[in-house]
């Protein structure tokens, strides 16, 4: 893994922006896997402020809460429109539909979308417990898109975005670890000391389902963009 230690999210965002531009220079119709949460925000700010052109590109997001529609400002569809898509249009944006009546059919539909649009470059954040997407500790490494019961740790971590913890949805639809591992290139962002243990497990720990991000050690093209605090436990 290539670990790039940065002094700010702005600096991290600029590094990622160059990697996105390189990918688009190779293929303007590239497929980008995108994430929500605080970690990629610096990158989205840099992208919006730049001349990057996604109009021929496709995006596929990692996950979406079950039960929040796109007008809910905590839904990931709302987040993506607000941070990126409304300002930088893509040819096509895919997110799981957390409002689907038949979640199992939606899971299959999303797998089909991922199969038809192989991901060239995937962005990830990392949970304090080492999750990527909503693949919580213990998730099988070959799993595809699935409905997840969020762990108490994730519910607590995400409560900061809601009025209170009770309002955090208890389920999400997530791209699976099996699909994430098929991305040709991955960028993982991690900022802040609350990510230090997860980053240590991801980079230096054994590859184990207890730390889902540790599977990234098996892949050939992974860049971790992190600050001093998040890398403070590395040897
Ligand atoms: C978001 C996602 C999650 C987050 C992770 C870190 O789409 O898939 O895995 O990346 O929970 O969240 P933040 O960046 O808010 O610390």
From TrEMBL:
This is Glucosamine-6-phosphate deaminase. Belongs to the glucosamine/galactosamine-6-phosphate isomerase family. NagB subfamily. One of its GO terms (cellular component) is cytoplasm. Keywords: Carbohydrate metabolism, Hydrolase. Pathway: Amino-sugar metabolism; N-acetylneuraminate degradation; D-fructose 6-phosphate from N-acetylneuraminate: step 5/5. The active site is at 63 (proton acceptor), 129 (for ring-opening step), 131 (proton acceptor), 136 (for ring-opening step). It comes from the Bacteria. The lineage of its organism: Bacteria, Bacillati, Bacillota, Bacilli, Lactobacillales. PROSITE patterns: GLC_GALNAC_ISOMERASE. Its EC number is 3.5.99.6. Residues 17-218 form the Glucosamine/galactosamine-6-phosphate isomerase domain. The keyword Hydrolase applies. It is an enzyme of class 3 (hydrolase). Gene3D superfamilies: 3.40.50.1360. Pfam families: Glucosamine_iso (PF01182). InterPro entries: Glc/Gal-6P_isomerase, Glucosamine6P_isomerase, Glucosamine6P_isomerase_CS, NagB/RpiA_transferase-like. SUPFAM superfamilies: NagB/RpiA/CoA transferase-like. Catalyzes the reversible isomerization-deamination of glucosamine 6-phosphate (GlcN6P) to form fructose 6-phosphate (Fru6P) and ammonium ion. It catalyses: alpha-D-glucosamine 6-phosphate + H2O = beta-D-fructose 6-phosphate + NH4(+). One of its GO terms (molecular function) is identical protein binding. One of its GO terms (biological process) is carbohydrate metabolic process.
């Amino acid at each position: 893994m290539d670990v790039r230690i940065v002094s700010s999210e702005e600096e991290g965002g600029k590094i990622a922006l160059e990697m996105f531009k390189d990918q688009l220079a190779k293929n303007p119709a590239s497929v980008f896997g995108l994430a929500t949460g605080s970690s990629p925000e610096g990158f989205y700010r840099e992208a919006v402020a730049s001349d990057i052109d996604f109009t021929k590109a496709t995006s596929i997001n990692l996950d979406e809460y079950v039960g929040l529609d796109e007008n809910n400002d905590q839904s990931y569809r709302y987040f993506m429109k607000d941070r990126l898509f409304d300002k930088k249009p893509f040819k096509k944006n895919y997110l799981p539909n957390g409002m689907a009546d038949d979640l199992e059919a939606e899971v299959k539909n999303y797998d089909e979308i991922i199969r038809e649009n192989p991901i060239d470059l995937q962005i990830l954040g990392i949970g304090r417990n080492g999750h990527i997407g909503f693949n919580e500790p213990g998730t099988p490494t070959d799993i595809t898109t699935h409905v997840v019961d969020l762990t108490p740790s994730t519910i607590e971590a995400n409560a900061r975005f809601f009025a209170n913890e009770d309002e955090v949805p208890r389920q999400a639809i997530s791209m699976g670890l099996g699909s994430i591992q098929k991305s040709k290139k991955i960028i993982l962002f991690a900022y802040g000391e609350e990510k230090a243990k997860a980053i240590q497990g991801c980079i230096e720990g054994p590859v184990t389902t207890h730390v889902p991000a540790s599977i990234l050690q098996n892949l050939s093209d992974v860049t971790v963009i992190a600050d001093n605090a998040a890398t403070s436990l590395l040897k």
